[in-house]
Write a structure and sequence with these properties.
By secondary structure, the chain is α/β, with parallel strands linked by helices. It has 6 helices and 5 strands. A 5-stranded parallel sheet has the order 3-2-1-4-5, sandwiched between helices. The longest helix has 17 residues. The structure holds 4'-phosphopantetheine (PNS). The site of 4'-phosphopantetheine has 9 residues, from strand 1 and helix 4.
Length: 166
């Protein structure tokens, strides 16, 4: 439990396959709390993602281009090692409902055990977004349903391209 650094860097890790308005909401809330936020996409091809890491990064950079304190990157290996390499003292995660809590608690406590100086901070997404998940956005888009308002416009457009070729 050290001193507060002069500049607080937080990491917001995830799969972001794809980035949704729920993620965007958590990021926008966090910009008041941290000097720099590094949004970090997990490089894990075993999850059979819809979008490649490069595609996800490009979409997120576009959706976040007006947020000057937010950077977008990717990482492999342990999250705490990546966080330390970025000089981050905070891991940021969003919580939608109580069902998210158990998984988040396990990860936060494991990360604390691995790297006690890095603190996990949870933010609540706006309740209007609490039903949004990347998995459901993909499923609905894949079945031709309306996903407007669930993801940033450029992500919506990329989903339509993937599934409908338009
Ligand atoms: O968006 P997700 O899929 O819920 O994000 C999960 C993520 C990327 C935060 C988590 O899988 C992760 O941190 N993976 C990196 C590997 C790691 O550090 N594992 C041990 C910590 S529990």
């Amino acid at each position: 439990m050290g001193e507060k650094p002069a500049s607080v860097i937080a990491i917001y890790p995830g799969s972001f396959d794809p980035f949704t308005n729920g993620h965007l909401d958590v990021i926008e809330r966090s910009t008041h709390l941290f000097d720099t936020l590094v949004v970090a996409v997990l490089e894990n091809e075993s999850k059979r993602p819809l979008f490649s890491v490069a595609e996800r990064i490009a979409m997120m950079k576009e959706a976040l281009r007006d947020h000057s304190s937010v950077e977008v990157g990717s990482f492999g290996g342990l999250l705490v090692d990546y966080a330390a390499s970025q000089g981050a003292t905070v891991i940021l995660r969003g919580i939608r409902a109580i069902s998210d809590y158990e998984y988040e608690l396990q990860m936060a406590l494991m990360n604390r055990r691995l790297h006690p100086e890095i603190e996990t901070v949870f933010l609540l997404a706006n309740e209007a977004y609490s039903f949004i998940s990347s998995r459901l956005v993909k499923e609905v888009a894949g079945l031709g349903g309306d996903i407007s308002g669930l993801a940033p416009p450029n992500v919506e457009a990329e989903l339509k391209k993937k599934f409908q070729g338009v």
